[in-house]
Amino acid sequence: MRIFVTGGAGFIGSNFIRYVLSHTDDVRITNFDKLTYAGNPANLADLADDARYDFVKGDICDGDHVAEAIAGHDAVVNFAAESHVDRSITGGAEFMVANVVGAQTIFDVARKAEIPKFLHISTDEVYGSVDEPDSFVEGDALEPNSPYSVSKAAADLLARAYRVTYDYPVTVTRTANNFGPYHFPEKVIPLFVTNLIDGQQVPLYGEGKNVRDWTYVIDNAAAQWLVLTEGTPGEVYNVGAGNEITNAELTYAILERFGLTGDEAEERIRRVQDRPGHDLRYSVDTTKIRALGWEPAHSFDEALDATIEWYRANEGWWRPLKEGGASDRRGLVSADSTRA
Ligand code: NAD
Question: What pTM was computed for the model?
Fold first, then answer.
């Protein structure tokens, strides 16, 4: 099987590629990635000599290049996107280009090239916010509230159009918040962990009451692989581990792992102005993917421990991203950054 992965130099894509190549012998992967600020070849440096892995620098909006590179593949997994909600609030245009035009371009090229399988990676944010105790099922209406989630919802609807109009079965997964190794340190967990390694404060949005379902990226990689290989083409699958906690609970869980409790913990929290339009709670019903046989292999606590350990052991990976030092990646992250 030859898989064409887009955005594989980013956080989830690189974990997916590593997961697939370490669980199979006969799969070859082409990683097609534009290498934006979030795309980092170092995420897959350990695979540089693996004959099953190829890298092509390219933009999914460039239909001619995609058509040339995609030929001969049996499946596409489209991770490529602008992914940071806060950036979409300060400037949404790049999100519409990559996440909408890019998705339409690659759906179309893959359809014309008759690639048999197409998995498009979406997000639980397309449904919008939901009050407890409800959770969204796959057929629910899409009510996205940020420019990022609108761009992802637009691609989901394009996937629907390719299924209905062209009979091209684009499968969609709507995934909850991921965390784990190789997570760009503008996002909340790696930002907080790296700030604490450096003895700094952590910036918490508003009262910290927003609820997210935290899913370990390696469990998500397993879910995406299962949907690609065993899912029904053209279906939508929610993916989430069921670890719903508030941002405040998440913050205290991280602080505790740095030995900070009580007043010491409070002193490390700096409350910052809330994100505009901040969805209060994301929650998806995952009955459908669990019926395929998926369940998270890691508890939230062990995954958080492993993640913190990874950031402690891999300063050489994250420090240049945070400080813009040795790397050519932009040092866009300050200790004050707020995040998804
Ligand atoms: P990321 O920002 O870490 O990586 C995105 C990758 O896409 C980068 O390597 C970047 O270079 C590449 N890219 C961007 N625009 C491109 C283009 N036009 N052509 C080719 N490559 C391009 O993102 P991530 O967190 O790994 O997210 C991957 C996917 O999963 C995205 O579609 C995102 O919307 C979705 N998702 C992410 C989360 C999460 O918690 N991170 C949750 C749900 C869904």
Answer: 0.96
Q: Is residue 337 part of a domain?
A: no
Both 145 and 188 in one domain: the answer is no
Ligand 1 centre to CA of 246 (Å) is 24
Active site residue 124: yes
Q: Are 142 and 272 within one domain?
A: no
- The per-residue pLDDT for range 36-78, each reduced to its tens digit, is 999 999 999 999 999 999 999 999 999 999 999 999 999 999 9
| Judgement on whether residues 80 and 160 belong to the same structural domain of the protein | yes
Is position 255 within any domain?
yes
pLDDT per position as a tens digit, 117-160: 999 999 999 999 999 999 999 999 999 999 999 999 999 999 99
Residues 316, 89: Cα–Cα separation, whole Å: 30
Whole-angstrom distance, CA of residue 255 vs CA of residue 107: 43
Q: Which domain holds residue 251?
A: 180-213+243-279+298-323
Residues with CB under 6 A from ligand 1: 6-7, 9-13, 33-36, 38-39, 59-61, 79-83, 98, 102, 121, 123, 152, 175, 177-178, 184
CA 227 to each of CA 74, 135, 141, 235: distance values in angstroms, whole numbers, following the listed order: 15, 21, 22, 9
